[in-house]
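Lecture 7, part 2: worked example. A protein chain together with zinc ion.
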Amino acid sequence: MPRFVRATLALHGLLLLGLLVWPAQWPWLLALLVANHALITGLGLWPRSTWLGSNLRRLPAASSARGEVALTIDDGPDPALTPRVLDLLDAAGVKATFFCIGERVQRHPELAREILARGHELQSHSQRHRHNFSLLGPRGCAKELEAAQRSFEQVTGVTPRLFRAPAGLRNAFLAPVLHRLGLQLVSWTARGFDTRERDPARVLHRLTRQLRAGDILLLHDSNAALTLSGEPVVLAVLPELLRRLRTAGLHPVRLGDALALAPDAAAAKPLAAPALRRPASPGAIASKFSPPSSTA
Ligand SMILES: [Zn+2]
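Predicted complex, written out as structure tokens:
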């Protein structure tokens, strides 16, 4: 359990004790409680925070030392964009990680399987990409993640091991659900805001201004902003981004390879098993890249 969450639980105990000992001081105790919860909410709106639980923001040291970076592509599969993104990646001989939405995987099963067949990785971006995801309680959060795991398993036979929260926003209920499902939270090092920004040069700048080995870069293969000439921004950015990575001597890899995750056993098993399989001890995944004590 992260130190901040432990401290929060301890604070709740102390406040309760305070209420029993000094009941007249309840307004101050309540104010402390409200401040604590405001802080939790604030941390949930900070996608790269590790205060609410383990959060992969860069590749592990061993992977960085090999000059690796990870290209991650969110929100698909999308019948108009995903095939074109796949073609651009193929042309450069690059493998990426697609954080797909469970509902879309069910709607476009052939595309989800195509992503895998072309050597890329599929991971979970929740079942419905709800915009109020960070406001869900423990049950709502579990439902979203479990439904996504089932969608991926039914369509591809592969159980996701990594999870990216919709818009990167979350709350304190997410970490225990991730732990139970054997999922590791992944955010990013840099994102281009390519669903909002129409200027490919600015998207590229955001992704590459501090480019270095170990970076996890985020683009989207759905809901793309359009350039002034009407081209989806991601398609305008990707070839130049891949060229810059090559020039910088960086090698794009799938996250699972960078993290040395074992190939998913479910791929060899019959499809559509109704029960969720727990692929591995989440501690084993987290320990590969979580500094033992840092909460930075
Ligand atoms: Zn998303």
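The two ends are 15 Å apart (CA to CA). The chain has a mean pLDDT of 88. Keep this in mind for problem set question 3.
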